[in-house]
């Protein structure tokens, strides 16, 4: 991850801008420290997808507690704008499901901005359902079962 800091920050920052309309609350150093910790705990939970010598996506996964049970959690599904709609999201999702299965969880969640309508549509397409709003409506928690 160290040698690809520029790419991962760019992808996460773009995701933030698409979700919330700006990057005012995005802190690069805080994000990189958080990501290093996640990768240390779940090395297979971080994927920087590459095709034809070009980075095209990023996936951040972990296992966490939710209402006293272990669940899988998707911190980020990201596909570059020029690669969206070409099936790469499904490829990342297939990887995520395998990661969660290998970590013995049968349920996984994510949170998405309700204004990111294309992401919400994709999540519904892959079988996720809304649980409800969180953070005063800033995000919607969604879940699916394996």
From TrEMBL:
Pfam families referenced in this protein's UniProt entry, alphabetically: Acetyltransf_1
UniProt entry tagged with the keyword Ribosomal protein: yes
GO MF term list: acyltransferase activity, transferring groups other than amino-acyl groups
Boundaries of every N-acetyltransferase domain copy: 1-146
GO cellular component annotations of the record: ribosome
Origin: domain of life: Bacteria
Keyword line: Ribonucleoprotein, Ribosomal protein
Protein name: Ribosomal protein S18 acetylase RimI
